[in-house]
């Protein structure tokens, strides 16, 4: 029977927020797992203690921002509206039903005036990582790194071409030292540091000049930011996130960010998992210098115009020469500033070679093969990639860092940059990564409590439920490192 709706009720009801928030709500799990009180000490130097109006509790401010990233709320105005009507959010912030929610401008002005130019967001992220390490959720044995793009808040058609100096490689000092050492060993003069500054026409956005114009294969074209993220192989906890413009190569900031993690956290990785974009001689060599094994993906090089490619020329390490497919030798001549050793064939021999047209189109009838001064490290990394151990370690990459990016884009608003400027986008990446870590830590803590409860009750005689929960918690890395002795 159809009934008419009851009139609006105005009677007084005695309720508490504790009763209204579901027992299995995510905010309860996060609140039981993460200690946020450290925030007050971290920001104490940014507040005046003996003057001015009483400030809003900084713990509430940061928990509000983290709520926005935890539940993928795209703007601070929308976030304030959600907190006003969501009792779970109020419970998480320790606010009553009638307490006034801080205005959206309070969040933005604190970001712009109080927190701007500080590393407070980095310190908040680092502290959450430390809490994960203290709870045993970070193994630190294998670290996986990759980058993903965030669309910049910039119109690709509003841009100008500006000549800008070409930035040197991040590893230029180490490379210069290796080049001069190689030249001296070969009896040649060391090269003086280059003072030439090259300029390159660069497309710069007039809306967000700090973003970068990205032009990559199989990637969208336009103004983007890159989030370079490192994820631990045990449970997928994010241990580092770093933002660069979209036109920065993935390999550029890698070593410096790896060294920062090793100095900031008690991590002792034996291997790192990287995709083919990182498969460069400097990455392979400098990772080995840190006593870490690089496990990298491979991208087939583009085929040149000649039938014979570099792979057809065999390097003889004892004689330090290359041997061409016809058995002739290519002799070392010099080492360039870019770090490549040049091996030249003999033109008189090449002129009479029946395979000359398959080998080179040079008018001097001479073939030149280059070899990087750190090429041996790259060859060792390639051998590791093809090993059984290397394949197991690399296979775990799609379940860690790629899954982390997918979760960030799908649930935490990581497809688009909410702000303009490097510092603000870096803040977005740090808070999104912190929110993901909080969520994962809360869910793993819940699984641990369930496991302890099952063992305490003793109601799982065959161990099926315990095995299920343990399987959910354990890494699918299958102890590859211990098994293969690395």
TrEMBL record:
One Pfam family of this chain: DDE_Tnp_1_6
UniProt xrefs under InterPro entries: IS1182_transpos (IPR047629), Tnp_DDE_dom (IPR025668), Transposase_InsH_N (IPR008490)
Annotated spans, Disordered: 191-213
Residue ranges of coiled coil: none
Domain Transposase DDE: 324-442
Location of the Transposase InsH N-terminal domain: 16-112
Annotated PANTHER family: TRANSPOSASE
Provenance organism: Sodalis ligni
Name by which UniProt lists this protein: Transposase
Domain of life per record: Bacteria
